[in-house]
Design brief:
By secondary structure, the chain is of the alpha+beta class. The protein has eight helices and eight strands. Helix content is about 40%, strand content about 25%. It is globular and about 50 Å long. It starts with a helix and ends in a 5-residue tail after the last strand.
Amino acid sequence: MKLTSQAMQATHLKHLKHLKHLKHLKHPKHPKHPKHLKHEGPRRAVALATVAAFTLGGCDDRGIDSMWQNLKALFDSVKPDVLLLKGLTPGVSTLDDVRGQMGQPERERRFDDGSLRLEYPRGPQGLHTWMVDIGPDGRLVAITQALVAANFAKIHPGMSEDAVRALLGKPGQVAAYRLKQETVWSWKWLEGGVAQEAYFNVHFGPDGRVATTSRSDLLRGH
């Protein structure tokens, strides 16, 4: 919600009238805590003045918009998947609907036919990366979970970093090993075994291409 300049001035006048009213108030006597009551008025006046200053100096239209966008982005990043995807229907929902519900994507890929793929990783501790496909008509085509065994099986030696990113999304962890001259990208996922959760790792050589892949157990507390 935006505050107009008239609304901001009205709020400021309201605070000033309240401050003048407080100035003429007499505090009731209290037998046990007279010093506490003596200083209650000034404290309240200072608090109200602070609110008034905040209203005038920090709550302009752009400041409110920025604060709201930051809060929404924070909420989108932590809300459960069931809420993140709520109300989105293939063939019906538009690109604006997706952005309004899921927030800004981590990455957006545009293809020659005019279609889009939006990347929504839930990492680094999340177990899902949602790929949202938008057709050339601007409507939702599908939402798929990228971190599955079928996609991991498509990773092969020689693939570029960009090709891996396009298939699996942003890695939850990136580690560089100078002595081995390799960089390892890792994704936490639901493996479905005894431990349930594990890491799928892609090892890149010094040329930036896939050398091999591996899996590792998820350590407790990580």
